[in-house]
């Protein structure tokens, strides 16, 4: 989402700039597939104390890093690490590397799996318990450029309807939007639409 950032903003300032607008980020799996490890201490230094990280998981991560290397890196994020995210489609258990299960257990974070699709293979939702067992987590990943909000609205309405009976104390709600052509202006309109819908 390069259009979100000012053109003259240095790349290593982007996360701090982003965290001024948003409270959550999904770290793509390819970050961990590079031949260098992400500096998680620097990530924490760049964001505010209530900012949360979710880590996208892909078995190919372990082609580049070992379980112990990934565990050491994510342990640095642990104060603000909320979950490990797996793609939807109903086949997660068949393809999930057991090392991720071990990792989630050691970090004491959620494993978030796509459990239901809503009219498109580009929106999936999950519900589960958070680190605080009293709280429910509602998580949605929407892959869309948000240019046509009329088309987006019916796809997210089933997810939004799940939130009607949840109080702020009982639920944590996360919606991640991801698309290479996502424009800041369209994201702003989407946020306005969610506010009109009551969220």
Structure description:
This protein is α/β, with parallel strands linked by helices and 199 residues long. The chain has 2 domains: 1-113, no CATH class; 115-199, no CATH class. Helices cover 36% and strands 21% of the residues. The strands form 2 sheets. The protein has a 4-stranded parallel β-sheet, covered by helices on one side. It has a 4-stranded mixed β-sheet with strand order 5-6-7-8, with helices on one face. The protein is globular. The two termini are 23 Å apart.
In the residues, how many domains can be counted? 2
SSE run: HEHHEHHEHHEEEEHEH
Main β-sheet, in a few words?
4 strands, parallel
From the alpha-carbon coordinates, what is the Rg to the nearest angstrom?
A: 17 Å
Number of helices: 9
Q: Strand sequence of the main sheet, in spatial order?
A: 1-2-3-4
Average residue-wise pLDDT: 79
List keywords for this structure.
about 200 residues, about 20% strand, globular, four-stranded mixed β-sheet, alpha/beta, four-stranded parallel β-sheet
SSE layout and pairings?
Blueprint: H1 14-19, E1 24-27, H2 30-33, H3 40-45, E2 52-56, H4 61-64, H5 67-77, E3 81-86, H6 92-95, H7 98-107, E4 110-113, E5 116-117, E6 123-129, E7 136-142, H8 149-161, E8 171-177, H9 184-196
Helix pairs in contact: 5-7
């Amino acid at each position: 989402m390069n259009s979100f950032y000012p053109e003259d903003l240095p790349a290593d300032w982007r996360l701090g700039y982003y965290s001024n607008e948003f409270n959550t980020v999904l770290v793509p799996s390819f970050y961990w597939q590079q031949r260098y490890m992400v500096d998680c201490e620097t990530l924490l230094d760049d964001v505010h104390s209530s900012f949360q990280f979710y880590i996208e998981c892909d078995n190919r991560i372990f082609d580049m890093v070992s379980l112990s290397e990934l565990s050491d890196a994510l342990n640095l994020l642990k104060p603000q690490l909320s979950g490990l995210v797996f793609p939807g489609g109903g086949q997660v258990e068949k393809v999930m590397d057991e090392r991720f299960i071990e990792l989630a257990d050691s970090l004491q974070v959620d494993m978030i799996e796509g459990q239901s699709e809503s009219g498109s293979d580009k929106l999936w939702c999950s519900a589960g318990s958070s680190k605080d067992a009293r709280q429910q987590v509602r998580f949605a990943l929407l892959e869309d450029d948000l240019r046509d909000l009329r088309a987006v609205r019916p796809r997210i309405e089933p997810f939004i309807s799940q939130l009607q009976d949840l109080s702020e104390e009982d639920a944590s709600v996360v919606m991640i939007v991801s698309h290479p052509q996502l424009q800041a202006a369209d994201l702003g309109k989407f946020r306005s639409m969610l506010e009109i819908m009551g969220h």
